[in-house]
Design brief:
By secondary structure, this protein is an alpha+beta fold. Helices cover 28% and strands 42% of the residues. It has 2 domains: 1-31; 34-105, Immunoglobulin-like, CATH 2.60.40. The chain has one helix at 2-30; strands spanning 34-39, 43-50, 55-63, 70-74, 78-79, 85-88, 94-103.
């Protein structure tokens, strides 16, 4: 009986942990952020109008034709509401996907 109770507690704790890892980062990181992002020929550009964070930066995964791997390139850390953060691929690469991250300073 004691081992069954212990096993159920472990399963419940594991489920709560898994739910927290999949739900909390997405909602906490994006709930209060007001950002626009666009792709150009070689770049991924982000502008954040408002956020719960102080700074943001763009990041882009760049693909080179004939290669199996991607290279991640980063834009400058930029203060929210001031200017765009631009992550650039080289002229021999294409943007495959882009995203942005935040930090407080």
């Amino acid at each position: 009986m004691k081992s069954v109770r212990r096993m159920l507690q472990m399963v419940a704790a594991g489920g709560a942990l898994a739910a927290g890892m999949t739900v909390l980062p997405a909602t906490a990181a994006h709930a209060a952020n007001n950002c626009d992002a666009i792709y150009t020929t070689f770049t991924y550009e982000v502008f954040c109008y408002s956020s719960n964070y102080d700074e943001f930066r763009a990041q882009v995964r760049c693909y080179r034709i004939g290669r199996d791997s991607y290279t991640t390139r980063y834009g400058d850390w930029t203060r929210v509401g001031t200017k765009r953060s631009v992550a650039k691929c080289t002229t021999s690469e294409e943007p495959a996907s882009g995203s942005y991250t935040f930090r407080n300073v």
